Amino acid sequence: MEKDLDVKPAKQKDVIEASPPRSVQSPLPDLCPGFTMAFMLRESVRFLPATSRLAVRSISCSPPLQSPAVQAKTKKSLTKPGVKNVVVVDGVRTPFLLSGTTYADLMPHDLARTALQGLLHRTNIPREVVDYIVYGTVIQEVKTSNVAREAALGAGFSDKTPAHTVTMACISSNQAMTTAVGLIASGQCDVVVAGGVEFMSDVPIRHSRKMRKTMLSLNKAKTLAQRLSVVSRIRPNYFAPELPAVAEFSTSETMGHSADRLAAAFAVSRVEQDEYALRSHTLAKKAQDAGHLSDVIPFKVPGRDTIDKDNGIRPSSMEQMAKLKPAFIKPHGTVTAANSSFLTDGASAVLIMSEEKALALGYKPKAYLRDFVYVSQDPKDQLLLGPTYATPKVLEKAGLTLADIDVFEFHEAFAGQILANLKAMESDWFAQNYMGRKAKVGAPALEKFNSWGGSLSLGHPFGATGCRLVMAAAHRLKKEGGQYGLVAACAAGGQARPWNDCGSLSSVT
Fold first, then answer.
1. Which residues form the Thiolase C-terminal domain (predicted)?
2. Cα(91)–Cα(77) distance, rounded to whole angstroms?
3. How far is CA 77 from the centre of its chain?
């Protein structure tokens, strides 16, 4: 894959082929929904060694960053008769930054607008060609509840271009993309921009419910006596703020607690989790230095510096990570700030078209978007196991096996969540007793898995991560000569979704 992945109309004759340790930030709040996507790649994938449900497996911290380039192989196309081919032309994202840093004085629509403008610049797509815009977000700014519309207007799109916002926790931008696929597949649109944004530097904090009711009553009072009567009912505890919930509404349990219990259930040790987190940061740093994270666009923050890199990548050491105390279940938990994703600000956007329209406009797409599946399970005991349930379903729907997949991109909410899913996927016992399947689907080989880092290191703006996963898979497919890929994520509420997608246009017939 070239470092310059800008996509421009073919008429321009461009050829597109496809530190020192830092203090660790607060762990991720409990707002991560589940999602799984499958992209088409080449080269067979090794299964992890068979393990029992409670087996412990060591994770190497220094796997090879890249696999050697693979020779192109001819594999079947997943084109379906009578169904439009839907393609990703390109995608961009703002740098993902630790909340409370350079973006702190902005608003969510500022980030989303920047991503949309970056996509327009990257692709040279005329604004009037875009039929629809869909954006995902989780914690909404009340002043811009339809952030898709506000960002689109700010980016210069016509006020005649519809835009709406969706929310599905950490798979919100995944939902935005599948909405785009549906609009195109049904013939409603030919060109859709999908994306997502999250801004954790300034989350809404409400008055208590008692205070809100009092203020509404005060607004209705007509006379001075009525106003004084309402004010006289105010008590000191009315002024206590109502902070955003970081727990599952249905269970009142934080996602960190769920991750701790899941790690314990699958005997994922603290050492394994720290090793995996260190792997994520190490690979992300190497990918960043090598220029592989080419979906990142520079952002001149008003009154601040131009930002062109993610700032949460923090390679450390096992010794320093071991010093951190458990973040959720104290004192014996294994989930810490070091092996959890951190609060992040960022936005993303992808340009999705029907293949016919893309070729007519002179674009060479980066990937086909094929099948996707949403799944849900018990939000208490299986909150973070969405990828395990979703992966075999999307493979079967696409007519593929795990061995057909060359690139895996899974959302890393917690290191323990990733490792528990890998063990569950590799367990016949779990497949038979919990999934109603005769045998396991198998777990991805680590050399194919998140080889440019993941959410633990790159960051996780809840509403924007899905687009990052998709573009990482598409770029890795090109770089590694692959055909099929799979993207997956866990989600709040015990949900998940897989997606099947295809590599560069030249590799699939």
1. 363-496
2. 23
3. 26
Of 112, 19, 91, 24, whose CA–CA distance to 461 is shortest? Answer: 112
The one-letter amino acid at 438:
K
For residues 112 and 108, give the distance between their C-alpha atoms in angstroms, rounded to a whole number.
6
pLDDT band at 324 (very low <50, low <70, confident <90, very high): very high
Burial class (CB in 10 A: 0-12, 13-18, 19+), 397: middle
* Catalytic, out of 170, 189, 467, 502: 170
Strands 306-307 vs 299-300: parallel, antiparallel or unpaired: antiparallel
Cβ proximity of 487 and 39 under 8 Å: yes
pLDDT score at 252: 63
Average pLDDT over the chain, rounded to an integer: 83
| In contact, 359 and 46? CB cutoff 8 Å | no
Contact by Cβ (8 Å): 350, 365 = no
The residue ranking higher by pLDDT, 156 or 57, is 156
**Mean pLDDT throughout 415-420?**
96
**pTM for this structure?**
0.82
Query: Half-sphere exposure (CA, 13 Å, Cβ side) for 26?
Result: 10
Residue 60's nearest CA partner among 44, 48, 42 is: 48
d(CA 79, CA 509): 8
Q: Is the per-residue pLDDT at 54 higher than 50?
A: no
Pick the more confident residue, 249 or 457: 457
Phi, psi (deg, nearest 5) at residue 318: -60, -35
Active site residue 61: no
Amino acid, single-letter form, for residue 70: V
Catalytic residue among 32, 467, 490, 502: 490
Is-catalytic flag, 170?
A: yes
Burial pattern 471-480, b for ≥16 Cβ within 10 A else e, equals bbbbbbbbbb
Return all residues near 99 (Cβ < 8 A) that are at least 6 apart: 199, 200, 201, 342, 343, 344, 345
Nearest of 250, 331, 292, 295 to residue 493 by alpha carbon? 250
